[in-house]
Specification:
- The chain is of the alpha/beta class and 227 residues long.
- It has eleven helices and five strands.
- The protein has a five-stranded parallel β-sheet, with helices on both faces.
- α1 packs across α7.
- It is globular and about 45 Å long.
Length: 227
């Protein structure tokens, strides 16, 4: 069987795990939330950047990547790119890497624009985390249609509900998180998932530094640098 890798690409802490948990709930047509404490949350027919499990699957094989686009690695396979406001990435990245907020700001401000720039012309669909948060049924519906999966509105609503941060966080608190995604430095993988939290922690100078790139202005033209 011919397998088609599709990249699920995004900068770290931008929602990749959320998307994969949603897809698992949707593809498996779960009648109750997929338990992240007992299941690896690897969606059916998924693999990592090495594409080492490419022989498994039924047509489409979903592959997670946090790396900048690289033709040798990613080739011309279809891709979905999910992007998150850099100010909201900073506190999660700081916790994940066990570094200070200031160190996280410096790292994200340098690498986030490069990551976005490398992928924006190679992704067939770009999703903003903020839109996923505000209108998840609509945005995840676009994802289903882009993949060419059978569209079922009630199934979609159920998968969105089952992949919510509230449910996943409670599951993690009760039984842990099976997937090897949580840093050993992080207190937990599912923090809050809310938007706008970074602005409450950062200084005016840090916010402006994170929001000064051309890539930011293209993706968030309606955003003011400081709230």
């Amino acid at each position: 069987m011919t397998h088609e890798p599709i990249w699920l690409a995004g900068y770290p802490k931008s929602g990749n795990t959320w998307i994969r948990i949603f897809l698992a709930n949707y593809i498996l047509n779960m009648k109750r939330p997929l338990d992240v404490a007992s299941y690896s949350t690897e969606i059916p027919f998924s693999c990592g950047e090495t594409l080492k499990n490419l022989e498994h699957g039924h047509g489409q094989v979903y592959a997670k990547t946090h790396k900048d686009y690289n033709h040798k690695l990613h080739k011309t396979h279809r891709a979905v790119y999910h992007v998150r406001h850099p100010c909201d990435i900073v506190p999660s990245f700081s916790d994940h890497k066990n570094i200070s907020i200031n160190e996280s700001v410096t790292h994200v401000a340098k690498h986030w624009p490069l990551h976005v720039s490398s992928w924006k012309h190679h992704a067939g669909l770009m999703l903003r985390y903020e839109d996923m948060y505000k209108t998840p049924v609509e945005i995840f519906g676009y994802l289903i249609l882009y993949f060419g999966l059978s569209y079922d509105y009630e199934r979609l609503r159920r998968a969105v509900k089952f992949s919510s941060f509230e449910i996943c966080r409670k599951q993690e608190e009760k039984g842990g998180f099976k997937m090897n995604a949580r840093s050993p430095h992080a207190h937990r993988f599912f923090r809050s998932g809310k938007i706008g939290t970074g602005h409450k922690l950062l200084t005016r100078s840090q916010i402006n530094h994170l929001c000064s790139s051309q890539e930011f202005k293209e993706i968030y033209p309606e955003k003011e640098h400081v709230r």
